[in-house]
Records
---
Amino acid sequence: MAQQAYPDVPLFRYDYTDLSEAQVVARLAGPAKAGPTGKSGLAASMAGRTLRFVADGGPTLSWSFGPNNRVTFDGKEGGYGALDLDHVTLIAHLVPGTATGHAIVWDRASNLATVFELWFGGGPAPKAREVNRAVWHGYVAGPGDPPTERHKPTLRCEGRALAWTEDTGLRTVEYYCSVTYTHFVELDRLPEKRGYSAPADYVQLTEDLYAFARVEAEFSGLLHMYVYDANRLTSVGLRLGFDGLDSLEYYMFRGTGEWLGQNARFEKLGDFSADPLKIPDGKKGERRIYRPLATMDKMTPAEVDAVIAAGNVHVFDRASPMAGNGTASSAALAGKAFTIEYDGGPKVEYRMKGAETLDWRMDGQGGWTEARYNAWEMMPGAFIFGHLFEGTKNHDGHIVVVDLDAGLATAFHGFLNTPFFANEAGAETLFGKIVGTGIPDPGSKRHQRTTDLLGRAFTWEYSPGLNSMHLYSTPNTTSWIIPTPDGHFATEWSGSGDFIKIRDQLYFARWQEEACNGTLGTILINMRTMHDAGIGYHMGKQGGLSMSAVGAPARHAGKFDVARFFGDKA
Amino acid sequence: MSEKIPATDRRSFLKTGALVAAPLAAIAPVAALADDGSRAKLARLEDERAIEALHRAFLRRLNGKGVEACGEFGLDEALSSLADDPADEPRIAFGDDGRRATARRACKVELEAHFTGDSTLERMARHQGHGSHRHEEARVLVADYVKGQDGWAIERLRFA
């Protein structure tokens, strides 16, 4: 794979270099002496000042700022950058000869300050290229009594979304859909315009001003942070870390924002707690960062084949915690016979022998094969059903939506043996028509991809204690966020998505958990009943190959108008 | 092992405390227990008391030792505790022969789901430190009892 600063493959497919700490220090040496760059120029207002920061339960740190953006910290002189946002100054520097630095958020009006202590290597991040941070709240010592107020972690940002344009010209859609995570779409850097999820800090400075920081854990390891004014929609920020070519990005920026809206939060009314995943006695900088690639099963094709040959195959034969609140399955397809002719794809003949048993035949060839299926009728005449194609090389499965009133069908074709992990589900979307007695011929009409779900978020209550929110963040991204028991949405991840309109207010959606457990998730969403029914297609070492039910009532968390950011893809 | 409470005789019944004595007094004075109807009522009250004692013993075992200690009843493994609804009056219906009974009691059950599966959401929940979830539900516990030589025993438990 060719190395690229910003890959044209999904970030979870890119092979980022595992830089050593020594390599990091070497790459930081020059920039630490020079300080960060800034397209719009940097503030000189710190020259001649000394800041002594006193952290609550943390270090006391001192910086002496000289002319020409020089700063001395811990006896080492280097360069720094500063940018003012009204009465708050953001200051950034690296400590020469080390892999450490700071981003200081200083409110000159109150002397309250928050310091992001930054370092590469030595943990808790598993790789040296990933920026570690510890967030300290405190104050800058002055001549009077110390202030009693403090900056604080906040949930006030949760549910907001903004589109930012840096003075570099780079644009980012930032969905703050969690208290501990964010979901971002770098519109100009990443060719695919996919969304990615990252652990984040949200700090309230004042009613207007907030500090935000994300680290691209699992990918580049870059830190992207800024202070923003929620009313004036302006920001000053810092970007620090290594791109896909291992080049250091170390610059400060000014940004202008566009307010995209506010989704619902689901904490109990009056609950403003903002540290829902606190780690008792955690190490400095430690936080709960979801690293799904490390924990997912990784199987070879031979291992997959062996597990399946041993009979570890489960098609709707066990209770699914993902469907504890699902709708009842339907027997209404029993007795029907039809063929689905997919455009540019197979013709699949079906004889629905019973409520849970069908026969299929592919392209009119060979004999009929019996398969177990389940079906759900989510609107009268519109069904979702799924089954495996036993004996196929890649252990294919189809999850199909048929609209018998319209003669239209769409399938998410799931398969194993992708080039990445044999047990990871790949998927393609097939559009077609249904041919059968009493079923109307739609001619050339087909279901269509839709942007109706783009920017929309639903919560899903699968079973007691097992809930999530979907955010359909781009035309090809589904993000999922899970809440804590008290309703703070927290850990988040995302993968490829596809979204099909079946009827008004009836949508067929999928997500792929690539480099993350490997599941293909599919749901047919009825926005009139606010319920879905769906099917998960999964291969794992213990659970084997499975198709299992998905189903939950929905709450509509909101919708952001973001289609204009995605051009033709939208 | 089934819970068994020996059937009480009239003497031991009359020695019991105020909780049992009060309903007895409301039905018939002790001096009037000589007629056949009163004897039958007393026997029924003794049966009811034995069944209630059996129920309390079951609750102690379930809530003290867990559902695995009540394995003979085949209860939902997620059941972590059960408490009678104090606002509800248990309804006990006896069979014609007086040797079988069915009690219906409104109760609150606490169910605990352990997220041990390999679905992505379960993995994420464990990552967050939320490997299990407890919630309460209002249920009706239906208990079938049978009276043998050793007294009453719980034959079957289920939730309506």
---
Amino acid sequence: MAKHVLLNNVHHKDTRVLAHYAKEFADDVASVLVFPPEFVELQKEYPIFFQLDQQTKKYQCVVMLGLQKDENLFLSNTTPSGWDADYIPAMMERGPFLIGFQQQDPLSDPSPVIHIDMQHPKVSNDKGQPLFLEHGGNSPYLNHVATRLQSIHEGMAIQDKMFTGFTSCDLIEPVNIEFDLNNGEKCKLTGNFTINEEKLAALSADQLFELNQSGALQLAYAVVASVTNVRKLIERKNAKLS
Amino acid sequence: MLSISKQTEAIIHCQPGEIPNDIHQYQHPVVLKGLVKHWKLVEVGLQSPQKSVDYLKSFYNGKPVFAYFGEPAIDGKYAYNENATELNYESKKARVDEVLELIIEHLYDQQPPSYYIASNVIDANFPGLGDENNLHIPVTSKSSATESPVASIWIGNRSIARCHYDASDNIACVVSGKRRFITFPPDQIANLYPGPLAPTPGGPVITMVDLHNPDFEKYPKVKHALAVGQVAELEPGDGIYIPSMWWHQVEALSSYNILVNYWWSDAEKYMGAAMNVLYHAMLSLRDKPAHEKAGWKHIFDYYIFGEGEQPTEHLPPEAQGFLAPMDEMMSRQLRAMLINKLNR
């Protein structure tokens, strides 16, 4: 059971967080939510797709980490972080932390604050990164986590605008990915959406201008460019099988 | 019974809309009789609360505001519970028109629930209202000032805002209902028994003393404060100037009250809140060994509270560093240094 509490330097004076990645921390996930501010970095290593959230009926962004359930092909025993890529998605890096909202004073709107899940397997009292300095200042690790949470928070706002832009230009299409592994196994991934490259190329000057102004145009191209990373994933999988 | 006899000095020949140019020369509160009696908002209020409500609603843009809601038992005395750990009322988001309706609904109750929309920037929620009810504050405000005069409106039924101080200079104008202002000079802090630093009703610390019924056994020194305090009762249309740091208790005495006030501070914006200095001093100074702390008192007197150029007059300009008069760029360096040193 998750136990979310407001992080503070009194209650969590001695709390540490294991900042590396491993199967035993439940990091073996086949996909993870990502946000538009990350696209430029993500497109170099991960395939970015959209999926429909069954509850909200809204699109959300994911990167694929594995080709079957509970498979994360980026987990690695040979790198110190346990993750074999230059860029790690913010939702993975946030670890046990999440954004909460707190009314700082009764006369203003709630502002974002950091919460921590004390039941999270990465939370420890003796191992890992300290959250606070000796006298209660923020540790460099906590400051880093805060910037990652900040980009998730900002990304959520940008994301809705981005999808409005994409749908108004009718750019989103479903995509089925089929491939054979070296061991002869046939695989098929469904439920993903991407940018229709032809429609993107055929946008009118007005549409291009608008998408560019809103910042969504370069995000669309990042998504298109990221699709080739599916091949890299398959290579990772084949390397593991051999 | 309030045992303060001194009446606040009043300028009784005030021209409506004319604040004396030398207002900030006053070292004490001054009543400005009839200062805003020409306002439409005052005029409709004198006709009836309902007329005033209708007039306000015609400007309201529908944005929610924070409002205080109190049980009838608190009788508008916004303060603390028994052990001063919580406020004795609730602050929550509401629509102005709904709060106005509630006030009207309970206008003739013997013991109405308490409703208060406190300190609401007029332009943010009542666009246009300020044009018809305008007051020029004669301060030469620089763009780098902490706060240039901005009109805020306070709407409620009976209320007592416990004695507190604000860092900004203040001109408050009574629009509807009668209001009593009880004021004390800044040096009366110890005699006024300030409450917790947090929570507070609106930011500033409030006195723990019920000035109308003081518990002299618990708060004996309040007698000294009462001896130097002053009181003013204002009618619709009257204004009052309250200098920065003066303690003031503001009491709305009628069943329907409106006040409009203007706060300003000419301090450079980069300075930030002096309260932060106090908190920092509590952390790093207050509990230092007595002889060490006593030494620091001299240091502070020399560098901070002293007069004039003393710390720099014997130093060449190029050697003065942070001792030189502060400016925007230097304040940035100082802030960066402090952030760095504090994060430990």
